[in-house]
Automatic annotation (TrEMBL):
PANTHER family hit by this protein: FI01459P
InterPro entries (alphabetical): DUF719
Phylogenetic placement of the source organism: Eukaryota, Metazoa, Cnidaria, Anthozoa, Hexacorallia
Protein family: Belongs to the FAM114 family.
Protein name: Uncharacterized protein
Keywords in alphabetical order: Phosphoprotein
Phosphoprotein among keywords: yes
Organism: Desmophyllum pertusum
Length: 273
């Protein structure tokens, strides 16, 4: 992901915030919320570590003999394959249960075998699901009680937080992995790559699920509104925000590839020592 693009998006979002109008037009935007939850700071740090790892990886590969290179190529390719991201990966119609998401994320983070947790990711997801459940109940009990802008604002903030918390975990994961580079690893880099990929796929699916749930609340709000078109337009914007959140996450995931490949070279060296 090019940080210049993100910084330009930040400038645009700030201009929108200044020029926002009162009334039914929401002034919140995904990028500002992502930045508010420190997503940009963690992404910038992650990209720097990724670039540094890429440079070290290339230098190490150049220094390998032909036999050594042939010996590590299968592992490097296996790790690279894990990070091949299909933009349609999270487009399934299947809706996961809240407990499934939590167990999937926590289980895969546990298998990374590093001293950190995914508590922030789980908490942000649970908060979003609880808000949607409350919204649905209130709309059933009192039609028209939920304003479209309120629903949209909460939706964008929820998507941004879940995305930012995941990027934060990527950053911490990378720091810990690089810090223990010279230490014997109990878990292989390939297994770690597979686990972080599975965790990311779970978050990508949850982003899609949350967007669908919030859109359902917006549909109900539109039915109860005196100006349904203004509320319905927010649904389209919400799905675009959901797609952007997924793009942030996919691009962040790709930054882990050189880090895990470099780690796999360290493992090969350790096994020969």
């Amino acid at each position: 992901m090019k940080l210049l693009v993100l910084k330009e998006a930040k400038e645009v979002s700030e201009q929108k915030a200044v020029g926002g109008t009162e009334g039914t037009t929401p002034t919140v935007d995904l990028f500002s919320e992502f930045d508010k939850f420190q997503g940009l700071a963690h992404l910038e740090a992650l990209e720097m570590l990724s670039r540094d790892s890429e440079a070290k990886l290339e230098s190490r590969i150049i220094d390998l003999t032909e036999d050594e290179l042939n010996g590590v190529k299968p592992l490097l390719r296996a790790v690279e394959e894990v990070f091949r991201v299909d933009e349609n990966d999270a487009d399934d119609d299947e809706i996961t249960e809240e407990g499934d998401f939590k167990s999937e994320v926590l289980e895969n983070v546990k298998f990374l075998n590093l001293p950190f947790t995914a508590d922030k990711i789980v908490t942000s997801q649970e908060r979003a699901r609880e808000w949607v459940a409350t919204c649905v109940q209130e709309q059933d009990d009192s039609p028209g009680s939920k304003d479209g802008v309120e629903i949209y604002t909460t939706a964008v903030s929820s998507l941004a937080e879940l995305t930012a918390r995941t990027v934060e975990l990527f950053h911490k994961f990378t720091e810990l992995l690089l810090h223990q580079a010279k230490q014997a690893a109990e878990t292989s880099s390939l297994v770690r790559a597979q686990c972080v990929r599975k965790m990311t796929d779970a978050v990508l699916e949850e982003i899609s699920v949350l967007a669908t749930h919030f859109a359902g609340c917006l549909n109900t709000a539109a039915d109860d509104s005196d100006n349904p078109d203004s509320v319905s337009s927010l649904i389209t914007t919400l799905y675009l925000d959901s797609s952007t959140s997924a793009d942030y996450l996919r691009n962040s995931l790709k930054l882990l590839r050189p880090v895990l490949q470099l780690s796999s070279l360290d493992e090969k060296n350790a096994s020969r020592s």
